Amino acid sequence: MEETIDRLRVKDLLFLCILGLLCLGVLMVQSASMQVTGKINWQWSGKGLQHFIFAAAALATFWTVGRLDYAKLVRPGARLWRQPTAWLAATAAVACVLVLIPHVGKEVNGARRWLPMGFIQVQPSELAKWSLVLLMAWWLSHPPVRLENFFKGFLPTLLPICLLCLLVVIEDLGTAALMGLCALVMMIAGRVKWWHLAVIFPPAMAVGLWFLRHKEYRWKRIVAFMDPYAAPQKEGYHMIQSLLCFSTGGLSGRGLGNGIQKLGYLPEDTTDFIFAVICEELGLFGALLTMALYAGIILVAWQVMRRQRDSFGRMLAFGVAAMTGLQAIINIAVATVSMPTKGVSLPLVSAGGSGLVITAGAMGLLYSTVRHVHREQRLPLETQSAQTLWKELTAAA
């Protein structure tokens, strides 16, 4: 009885955090997209109304996915290529390839990151990052190979991670870095040997540095981060305007709708820098409220990991919380000029379409791990040797 009551409280906490973030996003996107018209009556802005519709769809997606049983994502005893998580990762990889093809992927502001699908546009990088979480959750909880073996276990584990990250990094370095960092955290939670990670760290850093230098604007952002005022009208402009939001917002803020920087001064005020608008209008209270809502999601995941009986549910909850928490940390760090500018949105708050709905679906999976409690299943996999799996993975890559 006590366990049931605790589970209900955790479910309520998660629902309130998701609802709070979605409502905060609707308010702040509407406020950030306001224009000076001379009219005193309140009215929806185009972007604000659009975000409200997507937020409603995201809430419906969260509730729908949350009613499903997360255990259906795993087929005990099945081979790798018969796992739903593997198929989802393969679909995301195909979408990431399609978006790079001219006249197929849609290019906006010099970046081709969107795939038109009817009346909506899907961002394949969003599919890729969450499919990576699902794949890693299954792989680390039902390892088809021995992870403690460097060549026959650890390296095959890296293949899907590297493949998805490389497909994303071509156009979206920030999301690729987020995916790699989340995969690293999940591998550490899966008790991968530290010396294995130490071996791959230098080549991973070298590849990351090459992608930074490969496109000039990325390297200029790094240089501008060291001294934003060296180029106040170019690469340092975003950072300076964001800092002005914090300095003018203070403790109590200017008041909802009374921000100044959003009126043509702060770029990407409804997406990447929405946290700066929150701090300018709601002050320190708004900042603390936003971080408390994310902390609530992480607390729910912690409770799931502490109480859940099956390893897939625990790893899935950990992966969802890790991806959400890391993305929020990166976005807030960029807005506060604690790290170079990256195109990473604030989860469930920033304006978005497919990304908002997909993230809500991932939150629904976390909700499902709270609702359903499964005992550990130790059914044997359809045995395939590590050598066979290695050949399959390398051939697919």
Overview of the molecule:
- This protein has 397 residues and is mainly α.
- It has 13 helices and three strands, in the order H-H-H-E-E-E-H-H-H-H-H-H-H-H-H-H.
- Helices cover 64% and strands 3% of the residues.
- The protein has a three-stranded antiparallel sheet.
- Helix 4 (124-141) packs antiparallel against helix 5, helix 5 (150-169) runs parallel beside helix 13 (386-396) and helix 6 packs across helix 11.
- Strand 1 (106-108) and strand 2 (111-117) form a beta hairpin.
Specify the oligomeric state: single chain
Structural class: mainly alpha
Low-confidence stretches: 378-390
Q: Could you tell me the radius of gyration in angstroms?
A: 22 Å
| Count of runs of 4 or more consecutive helical residues | 13
Order of secondary-structure elements: HHHEEEHHHHHHHHHH
How far is the N terminus from the C terminus?
50 Å
Strand order of the largest sheet: 1-2-3
| Main sheet record | 3 strands, antiparallel
Shape estimate: globular
Helix coverage percent: 55-70%
Number of DSSP-assigned strands:
3
| β-strand amount | under 5%
Mean pLDDT: 83
